[in-house]
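Progress note, project year one: complex with guanosine-5'-diphosphate.
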Amino acid sequence: MALHFSQKEDTIIALATPQGVGAIAVIRLSGNNAIKLANQVFYGKDLEKQESHTIHFGTIRDEKRVIDEVLVSLFVAPKSFTKENVVEISTHGSSYIINQVIKLLVRKGARPALPGEFTQRAFLNGQFDLAQAEAVADLIHSDSEASHQAAMNQMRGGFSGEIASLRTELIHFASMIELELDFTEEDVEFASRDDLRILVEKLLRVVEQLISSFDLGNVIKNGVPTVIAGKPNAGKSTLLNALLKEEKAIVSDIAGTTRDFIEDEINIGGVIFRFTDTAGIRETTDVLEAMGVSRTHEKMKTASLILYLFDLGDTDMVEISKDINKLENLGIPFLKVANKVDKSNPLFVNELKNSYPDTIFISAGKKENLETLTSRILELVNLDKFRTGNTIVTNIRHYDSLTRTRQSLLDVLTGLDEEVTNDFLAMDIRRSLHFLGEITGEITTDDLLANIFSKFCIGK
Ligand code: GDP
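Model obtained:
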C-alpha cells in the first residue's frame, strides 16, 4: 500500500472528455495541490479563496499569453469524486488548447494520470468499494438499457452493502472462535455453533442467488447469443438485415453466397442480442447435417436462443420438420419462424396460423410482422429479474470469488456437522472471509488493482 500513499501526494491531470474536437473539453485535476496548481495559471480570481462546489470564469495563461477563456469548477476535499481536491477546467474543445493547458499544468507540477487513476483514488479513499468502482467502468461502457441498469444498480451499492454486513457478522464469529482457541483448557464456547450455522446458511443463500444471476448478467453485459438457422434461401440474411435495419449481411438468391458467419448486435427492447447468421454452409442439402461442421455446431451450443427460419413456399416439409425436431432437442429456447408470407396465399397462411399457433409468420423481405417476432424473442429470454431491479452479477471476477466463497462456506457447514476442531473451523471461516473480501476490495493486492484499473480509460 505504500505505493498508493506516495501517489496520493501528487496531483494528477487528464482530459475527462473524449479526444477530438468538441464544443467544450473538460480537463480534470485531482490531488492535494490541485487548486493551488490551477490557481497559478488561472486569471480572474484567487481560486484558493473560493468555496467548494463553485464555478469561476477567467482565463488560463502561460505567463502573459492567454491560452483560453475557461470555466473552472472547484471541489474541495473530501467533497469530490476522489475525496481529494478536484478542479475541472472547461475549455473550448480544441485539441491545441487541451494540449497547451495540460502541458502548462504538468510544467507547474501536475502528473499525467494513469488509466483509471481517478477512480482508483476514489476507491482507495473510501468513496466506494471495489465492486462499485468496477461498475463505474461498466456504466461507461454500457450500450443498452439492460446493461446500463445492471451497472447503475451495482454502482449505487448493489450487493456490496449486503455482502459487507454479512461479512462483518462472520468476522465476529471468526474472532470469537479464535478467542476460544486461547481457552482450550477451559472448554468454553464464545460463539454459538447454532447461530454460526444460521449465519453461514444465510450467507450461502445470498451467495447462491448472486451466482445464479451471473448467467443473466453475462448476457446483459455481452448480449444474448442468438442463432438464425434454416435451409439455404430461407431468408436468414434478409431477416438479419431487416432486424438490423441496414444492409450489413450479403443477400443473394444464389445459394452459398454468405461465406462466413455474420455476427451483429441488435438492440431489441433495451437488450442487446448478438445474432449469428449461420448461412454459408452449403455442401449438403441437409442443413442440419451441414451444421455438423464444427464451428456452426459450437455456435449452436453456446446460443441462448435459436430462431429456425423456413420458407413457406418450400415444399419439402418433411425435411423442415426433421430440422425442427433436432433443434428442439437441443434444449435451447427456440422459435419457429415461417418466412415469405408475402408470396403465399393469405387464406392458406391464415389456415396455417390456426394449425400452428406457436409458429411466427413473417415476411423478412417486406418487413411484415417483425414486431411479433421481436416481442416473442423478448418473452423467451426471461428478463424479469432485471426488470425488478434485482442485483445481478455481471463481472466474471465477482462470479469467480463468489464460487470460491460458496465452497468455503460449504466447508464451514461440513466442519460444523463433523464437529471439527476450532482451528479448522476458524480457517474455513477465514477463507470465506477472504473470498468475500476480494469482491468488495477489503482484500486486494496491487496486482489485482492494477489489473482492474488499467482497463479503464485515461481520465476516468
Ligand atoms: P439465406 O440463404 O437463408 O440467408 O436467404 P437470403 O436472405 O439470402 O434470401 C434468399 C432469397 O429469398 C433472396 O432472394 C431474398 O430476397 C428472398 N427473400 C427473403 N425473405 C423474403 C420474403 O420475406 N419474401 C420474399 N418474397 N422473398 C424473400
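The domain at 134-218+392-453 is CATH 1.20.120.430 (Four Helix Bundle (Hemerythrin (Met), subunit A)).
The longest strand covers residues 65-75.
No further modelling is planned for this target in the current period.
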